[in-house]
Amino acid sequence: MLGHIIYSILSVSFCLLIGKSIELFLPILPASLYGMAIFTLLLHYRFLNAQRIKPCIEWALANMAVCFVPAGVGIINQFELIKQHGIALIAIIFFTTFLLLTLVGIGYQRKLNQQALTANNESTNDK
Predict the structure, then answer these.
(1) What is the pTM of this model?
(2) DSSP 3-state assignment of 26?
(3) DSSP H helical segments within the chain, as ranges?
(4) Per-domain residue ranges of the chain
């Protein structure tokens, strides 16, 4: 198990280091996002052993609730501000969530239609 932990820490650290290097030359996104994208690609293309990383990821997901405690405390500390602008905040949250889901759905549907069209073209060209 200790080997899995060390492998996971080194893998994530390596990806974050590469992400920080990319951020130096391309400061559009935070280094952690670049690192996360690189980590995902390395897992997808099997440069990293997902089975060795899995126990640590499962542990992190099981204990993720601890990360949200500071956000809950922040909400309680800013209760007067939330009470004052609560309706606007809820409207913004619902609107942006709906907009994001709609755009992702449209983009995904276009991709599926494009793949189906490409598959149909290839099958008609083969005949």
Answers:
(1) 0.58
(2) coil
(3) 2-25, 31-44, 50-62, 69-77, 79-126
(4) 1-62, 69-127
Distance CA 56, CA 39 (A): 14
**Look-up of token digits 């690609």:** 41
Question: What are 84's two structure tokens?
Answer: 């004052």
- Give the per-residue pLDDT at 126: 67
Taking the C-alpha atoms of residue 14 and residue 45, their distance in angstroms, rounded to an integer, is: 16
Task: Give me the long-range contacts of 7-16 (CB less than 8 A, separation at least 24).
Answer: 7/49, 7/52, 7/53, 8/52, 8/53, 8/55, 8/56, 8/57, 9/56, 11/39, 11/42, 11/48, 11/53, 12/39, 15/39, 15/42
pLDDT digits (tens, 9 = 90+) for 37-90: 999 999 999 999 999 999 998 998 898 888 888 888 888 888 898 889 989 999
Residue 6 and residue 53 in contact, taking contact as beta carbons nearer than 8 Å: no
What pLDDT, in 10s, does the model give residues 7-23? Answer: 999 999 999 999 999 99
